[in-house]
Amino acid sequence: MAEKQEEPSNTQNGEPDNAEEGEEKKKKKLKREDLPPFEIVTGERLPAMFFKFQFRNVEYSSGRNKTFLCYVLETQGKESVTSRGYLEDEHAAAHAEMAFFNTILPKCESNLRYNITWYVSSSPCVTCADRITEMLKKNKNLRLTIMVGRLFMWEEPEMQAALKKMKSAGCKLRIMKPQDFEYVWQNFVEQEEGEEAKAFVPWEDIQENFQYYEEKLAEILH
Description:
Blueprint: H1 10-13, H2 23-27, E1 41-43, H3 48-54, E2 67-76, E3 80-89, H4 96-104, E4 113-122, H5 126-138, E5 142-150, H6 157-168, E6 172-175, H7 178-188, H8 206-221
Parallel strand pairs: 4-5, 5-6
Antiparallel strand pairs: 1-3, 2-3, 2-4
């Protein structure tokens, strides 16, 4: 079973040490709109220390007050075009999932096909899950696979229902395996300039935590 991770210092997540106060109260809220708005950040590669902390697949996400979304977007038409990058938020009104559709793919052309893969630090909240379901129902030429490190508020019935609706709309929701974390490390994480790329080093309980979340997701989507 996944273990509770120690709370981060300000060198791990770029926040003041007191930013984690009241985190347990925040965890009890099913939706994230009550938090103050922050600017959406986009880029090609995210800092290694953010990946190591934010993507770690622990059971309790104390201190992890951001969503990191790495994406691969393949647009198929007369020619195929592939783009990739990442977005991060602070669980603000515009979450990373919706920011993707607002900024990266604001419009789906009917004569094109879109294959999208997301690697996300945690699964969507209810509001984002419902929006994703709407997008998939509205755009039949859109295929979305979401690989998540952790499940967000998975015990809540409303959250479970939202994930089931996503599946029914055609979304493929998966838990990230150790190989998926390695893929993100190699393709979306900054490496020190002028140095050879460092190999991905799995944390001690990465496989155990993957199996824990995979079982929970299977129970929800059965």
